[in-house]
Amino acid sequence: MRSVRRRTTGLAAVGLLVPLVTIPALTAGAGPSTTPSSDVSCDAVVAAPDQESAFAAASDATGVPADLLKAVSYMESRWDQHAGTPSADGGYGLFNLLDHAPATPDGAGKDATPRAAVSELDRAATLTGLRAAELKSDAAANTCGAAALLASYQKSAGQGTGGSLATWETAVSQMSDSPAFADRVFATMRRGESRTTDDGGQVTLAAQPAAVLPEAADAAASDPGADCPADLGCDWLPAPYEKGSPNLPDSTGNYGNHDQADRTGEGGPSIDYIVIHDTEGGYTGSVNLVLDPTYLAWNYTVRSSDGHVANHLEPDDVGWHAGNWYMNMHSIGIEHEGWAGTAGWFTEAMYQQSAELVRYLGEEYDVPLDRAHVIGHDQIPGILPGSTKSVHWDPGPYWDWDHYFELLGAPIGGGLSPTTDVAPGDVVEVVAGYDDNANPITGCQQASPGSGECVPGAGTNFAVAYQQPSLDAPYARDPGWKPNGAAGTTYASDISARVTSGQKLVVAQVQGDWLGVWWAGSLAWLHNPADRPVVVPSTGKTVTVKGDKAAAIYGRAYPEAAAYAPYPGITPQAVTPIEYTIGVDQSYVVSDDTVTTDYYNAKSFDGSIPDDRTDVRGQDVYYQLWYAHRQVFTRAADVVLHDPVVTDVEGPSIEGAPEIGKWLTVDTGQYLPGSDDTTVEVQWLRDGTAVPGATGARYHVTGRDRGADLSVEVTVSAPGYTSATFTSDAIGPVVPH
Question: What is the pLDDT of residues 56-75, one digit of tens each?
Fold first, then answer.
């Protein structure tokens, strides 16, 4: 078994409710180290001019390979110092050094000489002679302290610092509770990374294909009861299903903290979404909550420091995590340790472990890995008029959707480069970026207590929608989020005008660097400048209203009243529009046109009351839409569904010289969809008129073309798409060779 250290306190007894607050510093303070002497001199590290140099100097001072230091730090912080603000588990700096001692001394029960119960910061201070305050606030000091820790772990394991990278496996494992941590550190070294950090510097880790763990290293095996990849190291910590009181009858409706169902079988609702949450508290307290039968359950909790995953529900069962019963019925909820207002402290370890889990779940339950089905809690619609303003806004503006979807293997925008080549009627997808996308955010601590103050210049996951095509214009409105009609703001929880990465929009107008798009029932404006465009070409079905009346929007795709007729024990659920509509001149992108219309009835503890645990399925058809910040539904009967239109990523062009006797060749371009079923027809043009018979990839220039301009027209077709024709730039006039 790998030697691991304990970064978190042990779980309290099942049912103990722990407040979700920031873990306070218990032992490390701003004062000097209690030990005047030190094992490592950090003078050269602290004096280093940049972080690259600091890694090299720390390696010289301690013997820890610089690339190993980079890989560990990347997993802990993505090489960001976070301006000295603490992480979700009370850690600081590039290496997330903890300011509190573990409840159980590291190594207890695993070896003969467990270390004393001291915090990482205090231990690093003892090893280096640096003050804890320096280790917290100074990136170079933090690096030297972490290197000293790793060197001490290597020594305790009976290894020298001169061996191969594989000899560091035990030392690296002690930087985390998760058995998967060392695997991910070594995978990072094999892959390599490069990133601009939060201080504006550049750190690069060159790929090292030979960085492998020893064959004898234990696998990070998941608990057999967990619905997880076998090698993710998941725990099975089941949420309780209990009556409110043992003396209640089995048919009672007083129970918690989830519902039993058959979602992987024939009789239950389908699993269609994966919802990304943050805990707004620490890992241990959050797990204590999900283990409380009087609280509520979600499917998974992911720890910040090392990405460790705990599974709480069988996939068949329905958690109560989304605040919308229809979405609960159809979703898996994943809580991530952290606060929505804390800039950048969702660690790489967390992103990687979570993404591997979601890849597995997507394949297992056929959930599309796109931003309409892997969604934030902030994308969940309200259920009734007036309820949208109370829906949660996690994981917030600092969750890096672009990076997360790269890890999922489904990059936002399909890996296309952002462009300004946009015309009215186009469907586009927003690729906001993150590290270089520092939108102003205010009120982080007030909106998300425990987050700390907002960090100026921190990366964000959205582009801003404005009311007019000007950076001085007010932010766009969202009448569901702000029913009083007020404009959006920079306040941390205000999602009114946030167009997050992955959002699809229909372009209504183009004015210079500005795109007019339909947003929450009004025209809003997205800045798309040539020096930093934020959209890529996309395609998708769209809807417009049927007739001259606005179409209603719904937060749930519930069945029509007639669907309940076979089930007299079930009260028909009202089909009630929410605060939004689709205007008669507006168009929105469809994110799913195969929405399940159903209502899962779960009212009693044992399912014994008439028609309990029944999934009522209707005939009414709904479409799911990209609408403002959320995913919403509209009835097919109220709108017209338009096929997607073939879109050009790069249009046709001509290769060759316009000279008599020469041959010209067409590059037909690149289009969406890029499927094998796509067909391309070519027509050569002379002064804009089709040349009879000239429909091949090559064109022989003759005397008939003298003085003419030549171009080529390409018509692209694909099943289920409206065909489109694209014309190259002309070349000419044709001259003698």
Answer: 999 999 999 999 999 999 99
